[in-house]
Design brief:
There is one protein chain. The chain is mainly alpha-helical and 184 residues long. The chain is built from 7 helices and no strands. α1 runs antiparallel to α7, α2 packs antiparallel against α4 and α6 runs antiparallel to α7. It is elongated and about 65 Å long.
Length: 184
């Protein structure tokens, strides 16, 4: 009979959550590199097969056009500005690598999970403060904030599981003679 709450089972659940989180971080990072191309593809989709979405949300199509136009202009006139975005992408990849430490030794590296949770919470004031300063529509800031909300959920689950694993590892091993006194 297998124990679904034993150390091995907890470690497996922790690692599954971590792999999902790491994959999402990597995808977020990798997709931040080719923004101009992605926006061209997205605008093309909104003009063709995704036209019903553009009709339903005309502000979305206008925003995508505005951002694509701005990024194309920056890419043509000042490509070094997009270098900042490359660093953003790189940061996602580096953070994903940090979570490999948690994968290897969750109890010892729980601090990385807690760091990730702090970062997820920090997304909200960043979006609320910098969004209006950078003329980002509030709806887009809400989407940005959702990354923090959805990012913290698996991290909360992982932290809870790690704390359970830590308690199991710290518990004294039960032996048949545990609790018995030796004869005097």
């Amino acid at each position: 009979m297998s124990d679904t709450n034993g150390p091995r089972a907890l470690l497996k659940r922790i690692r599954v959550w971590l792999v999902v989180f790491i994959v999402c971080l990597v995808l977020s990072g990798v997709t931040a590199f080719p923004l101009v191309t992605e926006l061209r593809l997205l605008e093309s989709a909104l003009d063709s097969w995704a036209a019903p979405v553009a009709e339903l949300l005309p502000g979305l199509a206008e925003w995508i056009d505005r951002v694509r136009t701005g990024l194309e202009g920056a890419d043509a006139d000042a490509p070094y500005l997009l270098y900042g975005n490359d660093w953003l992408a790189f940061a996602h990849l580096v953070i994903a690598v940090a979570f490999y430490g948690v994968y290897r030794d969750p109890v010892r590296n729980v601090w990385v999970v807690e760091f990730g949770m702090i970062a997820c919470v920090g997304i909200i004031p960043l979006a609320l403060i910098c969004g209006p300063i950078r003329d980002i529509p509030f709806g887009w800031s809400v989407i940005d904030m959702s990354f923090g909300v959805f990012g913290i959920l698996p991290l909360l689950a992982v932290r809870r599981l790690i704390k359970r694993l830590e308690a199991l590892e710290a518990a004294p091993a039960l032996t048949p003679t545990a609790g018995r006194t030796s004869p005097a």
